[in-house]
Amino acid sequence: MKFWYYLCSDIHQMLMRPILTLTAICFCLATLQGQAQHVTYRSTSHYNKRVAQFEREGGIDESSIVMLGNSLTENGKDWAARLGTPGVINRGIIGDNTVGMTERLCQITSHHPKAIFLMAGINDMVNDNPAVNVASRVISLIDSIRQQAPDTRLFVESLLPINESNGRWRTLTGRTDDIPVANMYIRAYCESKGITFIDLFHQMTYPNSNTLREELSHDGLHITEAGYQIWATEIKKHLNF
Fold first, then answer.
1. Contact 75, 222 (CB under 8 A)
2. pTM for the model
């Protein structure tokens, strides 16, 4: 009887070993996935608060449309209402740049949303950073999104124009004509990769000018409700996918 007892016990252990191993592997994968969604990068106080807020809220799934960007996106507030489309989620952060967006992509791409509308680059265009460098940073962010969520539809929005007349944004002094240069590089890359590029820039400038129309901004950088209406109108053209 002892022989059969020990034999059955050994067989049971042999059968259970691969199951336990598989369980351990699954647990490790789940743990890694959970860690991958946790942002360890720290930036401004507002950035950190927003990232923590996003982590608490969650809410992104495969049916979601994510507005990823900086203050221009965050200040758009309820994008679902603006676009008349449910499931549109605002993931903009005031002051964010391509580094901050890349670091927090895990909160978005791990859920494989239906689409991402990306607005990035203006906060990288400071302190005489060349337009080609700004474009390179945006392109690197684009590549990260495509690698992490290859089935997510990506729409890249142009950098918006600025108006330097009030002199408020000194870090952007002299950059009016550099913005369309960065847009040119980004657009060419998107077209080479079959990514939709949405030209908002020329919708908001004076004719034959690179300057943001005064009625679309109170400070020369951030846009008014009229500007958001232009933005929303252009996005709506791309929602049938």
1. yes
2. 0.85
The label of the residue with tokens 């908001």 reads: 204
Count of helices and strands (H, E) across the chain: 9, 5
Q: How far apart are CA 123 and CA 138, in angstroms?
A: 11
pLDDT tens digits, 129-164:
999 999 999 999 999 999 999 999 999 999 999 999
pLDDT in tens, 38-93: 899 999 999 999 999 999 999 999 999 999 999 999 999 999 999 999 999 999 99
CB 197 within 8 A of CB 158: yes
CA pair distance 196, 116, nearest whole angstrom: 11
Whether the pLDDT of residue 169 is over 50: the answer is yes
7-34 CB burial, b ≥16 within 10 A, e <16? eeeeeeeeeeeeeeeeeeeeeeeeeeee
Cα 36 from Cα 109, distance rounded (Å): 10
Output the CA–CA distances (angstroms, integers) from residue 225 to 76, 83, 127, 201, 231, in the order listed: 9, 13, 29, 16, 10
Residues linked to residue 154 through DSSP beta bridges, in sequence order: 116
Taking the C-alpha atoms of residue 79 and residue 195, their distance in angstroms, rounded to an integer, is 22
Cross-strand bridge partners of residue 92: 69
